[in-house]
Amino acid sequence: MTDQSEAIAHILLRQQIEEFLYHEAELLDERRYEDWLALLADDVRYWMPMRRNVKFGELEREYTREGQDINWFDEGKETLMRRVQQILTGVHWAEEPLSRLCHMVSNVQLLHVWPSVAEPAEVTVKCRFLIYRNRVETETDLLVGKREDVLRRVNGQWKIGQRKIVLDQNVLLVKNLTFFF
Amino acid sequence: MSEVINLRLLEPGTKISLSDGSIAEVVSNPLDGVWVFARYLSSPSDAALVGTEEMIFAQDIVEILETP
Amino acid sequence: MAKAGTQGYTPGLVDLATGQISREIFVNETIYQQELEQVFARAWLFVGHESQILKPGDFFVSGMGEESVLLCRDREGEIHVFLNSCRHRGMKVCRYDEGNTQVFTCPYHGWSYATDGKLVGVPFFKEAYHGTLDRSKWGLVEVAQLCRYKGTIWATWDASAPPFLEYLGDFTCYLDLSLDAWDGREGGTEVLGGIQKWLIPCNWKFPAENFSGDSYHNISHRSVDMVGIGPSGRGRRDMQERLMARRLQICFPERGHQTGVYVLPHDRPTAPAYRDSPVVSEYFRHCEEARRQRRGEWGRVTGSPGEIFPNTALHPRQPRTIAVWHPRGPHQTEVWRWYMVDTDAPPEVKDFLRQYYIRYSGPGGLTEQDDMENWNYAHAASRGTIARRYPYSYEQGMGYEVQDFTWEGLHLPGVVMDITEAKSSEHNLRNLYRRWAEFMEAKSWAALATWRRPARATRRNGQRIRG
After folding, report:
1. What pLDDT, in 10s, does the model give residues C83-133?
2. What is the ipTM of this complex?
3. Comparing C-alpha atoms, which of C255, C291, C296 is closest to residue C170?
4. C interface mutation test: which of A54, A71, A84, A175 has the most C CBs within 10 A?
5. Which CATH number fits the domain that encloses residue C135?
6. Measuring CA to CA, which of A3, A102, C430, C450 is 20 to 30 A from C22?
7. Cβ of C163 under 8 Å from any chain A Cβ?
8. What share of chain B is helix, strand, coil (3-state, %, to 5)?
9. What is the CATH number of the domain that holds C350?
10. Residues A55, B8: C-beta atoms closer than 8 Å
11. Domain enclosing residue C289, as ranges
């Protein structure tokens, strides 16, 4: 591949990944939770560390550790399904009535593409999110942060294999996390 | 004009000169940027300080004489 | 029903004769300010766990009431709790969540404190203070009393408060249900890394009464029971023992602590649990056998949610967690949650429990989310001018308590409501508010420590106790 065609292929791949992420946001905002679950690999890891205020020079202790500490989320496909099922019972009072959600995705960067841009099988993607939630009458929450995803190509479709959600908060400023990042 | 020192960077063994003319050696650093623990090596104003370990305040440090 | 309006606390807002409590106590700004003095400045509060500060210099920033405190271990290994505020001009001397340090230094004027609270660094002490500042008078403000109990650390600002174990009284054996190892050895717990902290839009007393023993609100959790996140794959927790156990609500009127428990019949073994994991279910089986052996008849007792007055919530098992409801104004609470496991448990057990805890409790917890939604809107509704004129009903099960409860040879300390057939009672909630009213009215601990008086009353605020 020439430099220019490589660059073009990269742009097209990034566009494809962005489309995927926008489609995912659309599913969540439209409450198409079962369709959203179908975007997740069967062995998906979905986790969100908590964040500490730590001394300069000790930043390795800023995040709670995956698989070892208490986190805000530490989910597989099974538990994510349960969360969806709970919303769909219609009697999960924290989501009944349903929240109004808007997921905004930006700053999409392809950090790593394997094995090649021409025929990608796995992509590591980083992006920023802004999730707006409005609930019942005047409850409003704004959550901002980053997502680090590993997307895998499965039967010609992208699937989310891993998602690490990095929320830019210490004390959580929302009363619950009934929605998906 | 001497540079403003970031105390966080002073490692044990560093020799520093102080505003009263003393020379001290850093023993430990709490990394707060405000204090270091240092042992007096010489003190023209108070000989009794020599050999003692004290907390040295950032604004009392004039310059770094020798790094370890 | 007495109306408080903007006047603050008056006797009668909690009316135990009728089982009615005014909405004012949740929303009134003056009452809230009074609580900070009458309750939080005088009671014993949970601060943290020893496993968070294992080494000299280790610290964890915690809270007591509204205030930030430093829980730390000094160079000699002694544990302290200090107000996180420089004595000079108030700046926080530590704005990190946790770590290890030689000193706590204030960034405003540079005053520096050792981990035993002593003021050790004063800039320009010889020059600006002419060597005359008495540093021994200006150390960090330390709590009046501190107690370590089976790893947990408690503190009070009030020197006249009874020692912690006396404050607990006979409730201690129920606190042990959270703190003793699964195999019945005393103590032996550790806290998992990561303390959950989050804000909820309600008065702290809504969650406090819920954990005191709200046995009535299972309907809140119907959705999580339907989807099944329990450790045996069904419901939200293992429930089998309940099919054969007596279900009790137990409270201590003179202390304000209460809990639920289950008591198994004399000769029935504990049912299997944690069946989703062979490793965990076998560990549980093995531990439970040892626990029943070690504890004899008392081994028939297992814990369910409870509350140590005023704002420490216990959930002894499934999940095993301690929460503190920090007051943040009348309309807001900051919840801090600690999750615990046996120190000696195998890694697979700790990991299984860790993941269960995350999906059960906290803001991401499928169970706790619905509690918080109810507290949020119950509180909001309590604020209305008209709504405030109408008290809440806390009369469920009034008059059916038993002072001296024994079942199949096992005596349970405390005043007991057997709700096995009744299904529910608000006995424990009334007890929380009984004690709350006493704290709001009492001028001193002499008035609060009624158990120290030689003659005991059998009527308390008009509540008849049937023996």
Report:
1. 999 999 999 999 999 999 999 999 999 999 999 999 999 999 999 999 999
2. 0.97
3. C255
4. A175
5. 2.102.10.10
6. C450
7. no
8. 15, 45, 45
9. 3.90.380.10
10. no
11. 165-464
